[in-house]
Design brief:
This protein is an alpha+beta fold and about 375 residues long. It is built from eight helices and 18 strands.
């Protein structure tokens, strides 16, 4: 258990956009940032040394609804696709890069057969368990408009207060009992890697739905999910949203991890130090007395932890699966590289922000090495 680490500076979230595209960088002469524009496809370009799979032309629409005419931009060296775990496969599939049979069935001409595009979608399923307390502090910025206004004023004035921090103050990690892995493989990175994350918050369920009674909450996360989902196309229109199937809790291991996380949280809040303050589980999980009832609760409350990866996964050169090679180049193609969380073959045993930054920094070195 420790303090929750957050990328917050001066009361505001520090993101890739605010850092890598900050004012100093946005003003660079060799960088153009185009707003209100959408990439619709990556188009094939002239063949190189007999290779027909050259993708160095980007098709764009100069609006957000597809009513304007399309334009193209050609790269001299390569195109770097960084549209994210959902956007990257969405663009690739509309470009004819994916499973040829699935593309033909939809009416899209296939240009490069890569069946792994859009497959292997992996996210860390999350849910929560609430514990009733004896606190008489029923005020919450989520339920009290006056408190919210005061918190907003404080943030505007000093960049401090409840709006300057993440919902939970503490983070806990734990592993499942080794007895579970007598009959199944351990999906973690090793014996010192956790299976369960718990974000702990002492508020009116600040981590999830607001309640009228003061509670402490444990936001539970399955860090090593086995379930795999997909991103596919609904239509041939690039402006139509894709079909996203996160496939949460398809594998029983994932719901088992949430269940064991709830038991671990119960043990934590049953410690003597909480006596007289924490009363016990409240809410939907309060009446669950057997594992099957707990599993049903989690299947009904599971949500995203906003850590999706894997829809354009990396694999070894020559492998018959995957989308990019270890240099992040699209397999069997020239001129196209992918740099975002979609290239991660599996989700890391924690949060994905730092790993994505690491991937991007490594990609920058690879690109410089190739062209400078």
């Amino acid at each position: 258990v420790g303090w929750l680490q957050s990328t917050i500076g001066n009361g505001s979230r520090s993101s890739a956009a605010t850092s890598y595209l900050g004012p100093n960088f946005a003003a660079r002469r060799n960088l153009d940032i185009v707003l209100n524009t959408r990439v619709t496809r990556i188009l094939k370009s002239k063949s190189v040394e007999g290779n027909q799979n050259v993708f160095r032309t980007v098709e764009i629409a100069l609006d957000e609804n597809g009513t304007s005419s399309r334009r193209t931009i050609a790269a001299r060296k390569e195109v770097v696709l960084s549209a994210g775990v959902i956007g990257t496969p969405h663009i690739l599939l509309h470009s004819g890069v994916g499973d040829s049979a699935e593309l033909k069935a939809l009416g899209i001409t296939p240009h490069l057969h890569l069946p792994s595009v859009g497959k292997n979608l992996t996210d860390q399923p999350a849910s929560f368990v609430n514990f009733a307390t004896t606190s008489n502090n029923t005020g919450s910025i989520f339920t009290n408009a006056t408190l919210l206004a005061e918190a907003l004023n404080e943030w505007n004035q000093t960049k401090t207060g409840p709006l300057a921090v993440f919902g939970g103050g503490f983070l806990a990690w734990t592993r499942l009992s080794s007895s579970f892995f007598k009959t199944m493989p351990d999906p973690s990175a090793g014996s010192n890697s956790p299976h369960i994350e718990m974000i702990l918050g002492a508020a009116n369920n600040i981590l999830q739905l607001a309640t009228d009674s003061p509670v402490v909450s444990a936001y539970l996360v399955t860090l090593n999910p086995i379930s795999r989902g997909s991103v596919t196309l609904k239509t041939t229109n690039p402006f139509d949203d894709p079909l996203i199937d996160p496939a949460y809790l398809i594998d029983d291991f994932d719901v088992l991890t949430l269940r064991e996380g709830a038991k671990a949280a119960t043990r934590l809040f049953s410690a003597p130090t909480w006596k007289g303050y924490v009363l016990g589980i409240t809410g939907g999980l309060a009446n669950a007395t057997i594992d099957a009832e707990m599993d049903e609760y989690f299947r009904n409350t599971v949500s995203t932890n906003a850590h999706p990866v894997g829809t354009a996964s990396m694999s070894a050169k020559g492998s018959n699966y995957g989308v990019v090679d270890p240099d992040l180049r699209v397999k069997n193609a020239i001129g196209l590289r992918i740099v975002d969380a979609s290239i991660m073959p599996f989700v890391t045993c924690g949060h994905t922000q730092a790993p994505v930054y690491i991937i991007a920094e490594r990609a920058a070195d690879l690109i410089k090495e190739a062209w400078m």
